[in-house]
Design brief:
- The protein has 331 residues and is of the alpha/beta class.
- The chain has 2 domains: 1-76 and 102-217, P-loop containing nucleotide triphosphate hydrolases (Rossmann fold), CATH 3.40.50.300; 218-331, Helicase, Ruva Protein, domain 3 (Orthogonal Bundle).
- The chain contains 15 helices and 11 strands.
- A hairpin with a 2-residue loop joins strand 6 (130-133) and strand 7.
- Helix 1 (3-18) crosses helix 9 (205-215), helix 10 (222-235) runs parallel beside helix 12 and helix 12 packs antiparallel against helix 14 (299-309).
């Protein structure tokens, strides 16, 4: 099997296992796995009760990685996240006691309920996979992934994530409500117990690391690269956008498109891969003008608008094909 075929098999195996718990949300699960394949972090933004926390637990259990959960609250301190140095009287030295951030997969639950000072404790960890305590740097396990959740409705007692932290999330997704059939199936599955209790590991962490390396071999042609840059540049010129996506957004869309192509079993990226990942990778990096917000326009709508306006490589203008056929018959 080719490397993309192996990646596709790994993702399908993981998705099938996750769907034993999360009903009818395969696309959202695939987006989370895209981030894992890119060594990126995920922000899950949705209302309470739709399965944000359960989704992260299910994926961690399916992969078999070390897992820690941090419940963010207003009184949480940075040292509660990163860890502290404790004096050992017997040895006469300080010893580092790692915090919950030291794990391969970390659930930052309700991340926007912590103060900005505590939120900033994640910046170094998410960007460089390390934490610095009292001037000493400690490496984090490999791979290191942060899955953060937040409630976009209840803003009382919350602290909005700063742009610098939002930019460090590769992908932002919303799970949404299940359909009627899915909700009925959920009731049936949890009649006697939660399906997460009996969920087992289906892939090893080593398989995930190998897949992360394999994604790097997916080819991205120059026209597709130019399309990615054109989309990101368009976010910086739109009249309704105060601040467009950063160069980190270009890299996020580039890497996510490669992972999406591999999940599709292909060794190369096509424009449709870029279009499929543009909204999850770019929308949270955009700041909408106040006037546009007053009109009910959000960043997701603007990204869709840009996808309609930026020319797709290889596409031909409307009416071009018909004109070419008329020339061929001499009319």
């Amino acid at each position: 099997m080719t490397e993309p075929s192996l990646i596709r098999a790994l993702v399908e195996t993981t998705c099938d296992n996750v769907e034993r718990v999360i009903v009818g949300k395969r696309h959202e699960v695939e987006l989370v796995l895209v981030a894992l394949l890119c060594r990126g972090h995920v922000l899950i933004e949705d209302v309470p009760g739709v399965g944000k926390t359960v989704l992260t637990k299910t994926i961690a259990r399916s992969i078999g990685s070390s897992f820690k959960r941090i419940q963010f609250t207003p009184d949480l301190l940075p040292s509660d996240v990163t860890g502290v140095n404790v004096y050992n009287q017997q040895r006469g030295t300080f010893e580092f006691r790692p915090g919950p951030i030291v794990a391969q997969m970390v659930l930052a639950d309700e991340i926007n309920r912590a103060t900005p000072k505590t939120q900033s404790a994640l910046l170094e960890a998410m960007e460089e996979a390390q934490v610095t305590v009292d001037g000493v740097t400690h490496e984090l396990p490999h791979p290191f992934i942060v899955l953060a959740t937040e409630n976009p409705i209840d803003y009382e007692g919350t602290f909005p994530l700063p742009e610098a932290q939002l930019d460090r999330f590769l992908i932002r997704i919303s799970i949404g409500y299940p359909g009627r059939a899915g909700e009925l199936e959920m009731l049936d599955r949890q009649h006697l117990g939660h399906p997460l209790d009996g969920l087992g590991q289906v892939i090893a962490v080593e398989d995930l690391v190998a897949a992360q390396e394999a994604v790097k071999s997916v080819h991205v042609s120059m026209p597709v690269r130019e399309y990615i840059v054109s989309l990101v540049e368009a976010t910086r010129r739109h009249d309704d956008i105060f601040l467009g996506a950063s160069p980190r957004g270009s890299l996020a869309l580039f890497n996510a498109s490669r992972a999406w192509a591999a999940i599709g079993g292909r060794e190369f990226v096509v424009p449709d891969d870029v279009k499929a990942l543009a909204e999850p990778t770019l929308a949270h990096r955009i700041i909408v003008n106040p006037a546009a917000r007053m009109r009910g326009i959000d960043s997701r709508v603007l990204v869709r608008d840009l996808l309609r306006g930026v020319p797709v490589p290889g596409a031909q203008p409307v009416g071009f094909a018909g004109a070419r056929e008329r020339l061929a018959v001499g009319t």
